Amino acid sequence: MRIATWNVNSVRQRIDHLVTWLGDCAPDIVCLQEIKCVDEAFPREAIEALGYNVVTHGQKTFNGVALLSKLPFEETTPRLAGDDDDVHARFLEGVVTLKHGVLRVACLYLPNGNPPETEKYPYKLKWMSRLLEYSKQRLLAEEPLVLAGDFNVIPKAEDVHNPAAWVNDALFRPATRESFQSLLGLGLTDALRAVNDAPGQYTFWDYQAGAWQKNHGLRIDHLLLSPQASDRLVDVGIDSYVRAWEKPSDHVPVWIDLDLETA
DNA sequence: ATGACTACTCCCAGTAGA
């Protein structure tokens, strides 16, 4: 069972890349972020033609998330609980049936939070505390659970080329990193770090200033696993090669292989 | 470094991203 996450930075701009990569990677479930379109504008036919079920939670211009799955969805739920006034399309949960029980996958696009002296940063921290509460509740079920997406969090200094330049950035501020650590404190496992402790495992390179060519990247796209999922973790990969394609997203796909039997 | 890219939008200069 391969589960992937990718911030595509506009699915309509990236549909050719997405179709090619789906063929290369052959994931069973995919979490997409920043689709940047309403549900009706999502290019679902091209993806359904590859055998995927498609569920979107879109928004005009900004944000927007989608789930693709070769297994049928038992249920899908948009929006993260805890703030009825939050209209950003940043969260979509899907449940699929396994041979024994279910697998729950939450696709998330966590707020960026910059500039940190504006209301954007408190919004980010509140969103993270809502995610913490969601995770606490879901972990009580003791089921395979995957939180996958663009977290906009640099967890540690080894996850950014020049950490000193990022100390006051919303992606790397102490309060941001502490909130991410509290997720791990609940018993969630950072999948990449479970198999690879090397520095520089980047998932994002800015478009500006030759960041890709200089390998000035960030690790901000993550898959967090409940104990029932991390027990089944076999492999993790970062498909950084797509960043070298023409007109790429600034993020690249990250995937995990879980040894789970399907029905 | 006032910067750099890319994508969006009541169409095109302003906003957002990270």
Keywords:
263 residues, alpha+beta, Deoxyribonuclease I, Chain A, 6-stranded mixed sheet, 6 helices, 14 strands, DNA-binding
Describe this structure in words.
- This protein has helices spanning 15-25, 44-48, 120-139, 174-185, 191-195, 227-230, and strands at residues 2-7, 29-33, 53-57, 65-69, 73-78, 91-97, 102-109, 145-150, 189-190, 204-205, 217-218, 221-225, 233-238, 254-258.
- The termini are close together.
- A 6-stranded mixed β-sheet has the order 3-4-2-1-14-13. A 6-stranded mixed β-sheet has the order 5-6-7-8-12-9.
- It is an alpha+beta fold and 263 residues long.
- It binds one DNA strand of 18 nucleotides through residues 9-10, 13, 34, 36, 60-62, 112-114, 152, 169-171, 204, 206-211, 218, 220, 247, 249-250.
